[in-house]
Amino acid sequence: MKIFKYSLFFCLAFLMTSCFSDDSETSNEMVGEITIEGIEDSYVKTAFIGDKLEISPVVNSATNDLVYEWLLLDKNTGKSDSDGSVIAPKVIGNDKNLSFDVDLAPGSYEIYFKVKDGANEYNVIKSTFLSVLTEFTTGFYIMKETADGNTELDMLSLSGNKMNDLIQKTQGAPMKGKPYSMWTNYGSYYISPDDDQIVSDNAIALLTEDGNVNILRTTDLDVIFDRKSLFFEDKGSEKARSFLIHLMYGLVLLTDKGAYYTSNPYAQFPSAAGSGKFGMPMSVFCSSKYYTRCMRGYSSFYMWDDENHSLYSVNYNLTPMPLTFSDHTGSDVTQNLTGYECLSCGTNFLGGQQTDEFILRNTANGDRFLYLMNPRMMFAYLNRYVKLDANSHLAKANAMCMNGLSGRYIYCVDNNQLYGCNFSEEDLPETPMALQGIGSGETITYLSNQYWNQKTDDDFDYLIVGTQSGANYHLYMYKMVGGAPEGAPVRTMSGTGTVKSVRFMSANLSNGYFGSMNLIFPVND
Q1: Where are any strands of DSSP class E within 81-238?
Q2: 367 with 396: CB under 8 angstroms?
Q3: Rounded distance, CA 425 to CA 421, Å?
Q4: Burial (0-12, 13-18, 19+ Cβ within 10 Å), 167
Q5: In the predicted model, what is the mean pLDDT of residues 493-497?
Q6: Is the CB of residue 76 less than 8 Å from the CB of residue 88?
Q7: What are the beta bridge partners of residue 73?
Q8: What is the pTM (predicted TM-score) of this model?
Q9: 401-418 burial, b for 16+ CB within 10 Å, e for fewer?
Q10: pLDDT tens digits, one per residue of 202-230
């Protein structure tokens, strides 16, 4: 285990009063008739899951007038802070027995247990080491809005551990701005500040409504990029909207002004490793978080443009074209839709046949419209355009999502009841579906069908249902059978705030994954 080089020197200067002995090498040295036993050489704990470091030492002394102090030293202890002050060890306990909540960034720490004779000021110190791990690498990340309108992150690990307010705990404060979208970025390149070498880590990208970006590596949730460091040059008021993996270009960032790219190892034809920064735009167009990938279209995709209020088909060269029917008609129902907003988009890949959907709403009169596409190789056209019946549940729903793999449904919630709308039928029939385990007084506000189909132990197919009760949210994850949620939820999560996005991150991923024909999880909510 790594021993901090500054530990002995700093503690000699900071802790010694009249007499001091460090028994980190001689475990039971007696000073002032005080001995300490029962402390192990090292401990390993997991952070942010309620794990406690509990130590009950045996202290022998001729006097009962003893003063206890537990000190935590990290890699910055003994250094100077931004004000020039020396960073002191953190006091984590003043009782003989220690019970400490391990909400620490992953890494190595030293812990000193100091026992002082209150009468003569003699003291003795016993040291140990603490290794802190996390479960950030695999599980469900929950992007939420806080009560004061900022962005926070909770997580549910596959082992069932629940972690809340992780940005606050790892960075000191939530991310500023209301949440907009979240992206799981596998293999994010960046230059390590430790040795200036290019490294690659899985990361979570958080984007806010006003365009801020934080990209957090999943080993410790450290920020590897923010909005300023993500680009080579100042982008002014330009807003980041979403990311995607492109077959040839790598990682593509879509903004409200254009499309940028940087290398990523999970593109099918990745280029050399790079800094992870984005340079000049390769294509100039507007975008949003609402897009779906055409899995048989060589990195083409459908996209809703928030700025121009239009639906586009974007080809593999990232060139947008108005979405039309195959006979090139229909631009009147996809272009320049002033006053329209996108409510939902999704992709169904049942039986290997892809169907994409967008639902738009006319904000002036509330009318909703369903757009369905069936992409074929290089061609991505509109297949069906429907004005929804105003009395249908889909036309009144406050939450909706598309099924991905197990049925041809668009799910929607109307009056707190879940329905499945069969999009393959001409009249779009709607079937009520039961949800077990939701408490009384909870309002359903979030739906997402998410799945992982890598033929690994963590494969799943869940309908994720989010509810709100006052200032608190609850998440329920149901197994899917024939396109319907089955039985009681198999996973649950709760916390403060309002859920805006849920994304699954796994440590198991096949290279070339994003270039494959199988859609494994939805692009966005």
Answers
A1: 90-93, 98-101, 107-117, 123-133, 139-145, 151-157, 162-163, 179-191, 198-208, 213-217, 223-226
A2: no
A3: 9
A4: buried
A5: 97
A6: no
A7: 110
A8: 0.84
A9: bbbbbbbbbbbbbbeeeb
A10: 999 999 999 999 999 998 999 999 999 99
